[in-house]
């Protein structure tokens, strides 16, 4: 059967016409079953985000570089990078959340800053390299939503620095 599938696949790629026989019809069905389909889903279901349970929604407001405020309902455990990217905000996240860049730099509302666990050494090292560092700066990929952070406001800095980009060297 595998050989029939491979032969049929080669023939289809080369544009060669095939007579439908019981043998290759079976192989054709097997090929069709291997096709993949695109599906669409709500932004909140992208990345590592999970839909919050009813009644357990947490809220976060991002202040964009242009000064707009955008509020989202999120689930406990979501990190700020995933939330921003799922909602098409301008947060690059060049290292994919592995604490190796500073392109997910956010400035946290001082009223909430102390409710976030302290940054570890790796995060502090990256923050030291961020443009526009403030007293309440954090890396979005390292901050996870908790009940204590419900209602938090974070601002996106006007610039970020991507040390993963060779052009910066
Ligand atoms: S995405 Fe690179 S440090 Fe957060």
TrEMBL record:
Family: Belongs to the adrenodoxin/putidaredoxin family.
Highest classification ranks of the organism: Eukaryota, Fungi, Dikarya, Ascomycota, Saccharomycotina
CDD domains: fer2 (cd00207)
GO cellular component: mitochondrial matrix
Cofactor dependency: [2Fe-2S] cluster
Keyword Ribosomal protein part of the UniProt annotation: no
Superkingdom of this protein's organism: Eukaryota
Gene3D superfamilies associated with the record: 3.10.20.30
Gene Ontology biological process terms in this record: heme A biosynthetic process; iron-sulfur cluster assembly; P450-containing electron transport chain; ubiquinone biosynthetic process
Record's subcellular location: Mitochondrion
Organism: Pichia membranifaciens NRRL Y-2026
Name of the molecule in the record: 2Fe-2S ferredoxin-type domain-containing protein
Molecular-function GO term, any one: oxidoreductase activity, acting on NAD(P)H, heme protein as acceptor
Domain 2Fe-2S ferredoxin-type: 58-160
Keywords: 2Fe-2S, Electron transport, Iron, Iron-sulfur, Metal-binding, Mitochondrion, Transport
